[in-house]
Amino acid sequence: MINNCMKNEDYPRTKKDAIAAGLKHFFTNKRCLNDHLDLRTIHSGQCVLCRREYFRRHAIEQRKNPAFRKYQREYQAKYKLTERGKQNISKAHAKHKRKLEALRDEVRKTDSS
What integer best gives the mean pLDDT of the chain? Predict the structure, then answer.
């Protein structure tokens, strides 16, 4: 289920109705070719579970591809130089620092007990 507030049965039955309602998914109550009974996307009409499985397989295959890994490293290096990249890196560092401090405090409490 995509939206925790709505059950599959509450979604529109057709792609046309979902588009009219401004939603990204619809529910036909019919099984897909892989026997899933789940929402479908308005973009492709594809079952959400099939789409998720495809992208998981694709990500695993990509990680094994040396050319893709090289591209990814180059892209990340360029991203780190952008303003947005710098902001996100500093946020991540601050979050990590807070986690470490919390762990240290926890260890100090158990040591002093």
Answer: 90
